[in-house]
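[#protein-structures] MJ: dropping PaaI family thioesterase here for a structure pass
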Amino acid sequence: MPPDGSGRADSGAEAHFRALESLYAAAPINRLFPSRLHIDTPGASRIEFEIGEAHHHAAGAAHGTAYFKMLDDAAFYAANSLVTDRFLLTTQFSLLFTRPIKSGPVTAEGRWISGQRRVFVAEARLIDGEGEEAARGTGTFMRSRIALATLPGYARTA
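AK: finished. structure tokens for PaaI family thioesterase:
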């Protein structure tokens, strides 16, 4: 359960979630990884994307960079959904690859695990187009000195 214990977002949280989604969409890296972030509840996120040949390694399946990027982002945004003033930074991330992804739709699901002040722990999993888990990861994220409100793309409306 998120730190507030409610499991529900108020209108202030909704504005924060939409601003985080906007921030994600504005990140230049996402031109290389076209995808869409969804945050509906505190401590959870979902990223939808499509794996294609541009993401393949020499053996014809998705390269680990695609796995890492989506798992890290999903866990990160699940954690940052609980922090309304500061940008979090990934300080550690562990991956477990469970099956290759060739091509098609993939969903990264992120979930906050613990931490409420300075350090947060969150996990994520990748689900392929057949509904099978292809990878999972766990990360630690720390509050930075970077104010969310100063970042291009973070446009909060209430």
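MJ: nice. The longest strand covers residues 133-147.
AK: one more thing. The longest helix spans residues 64-80.
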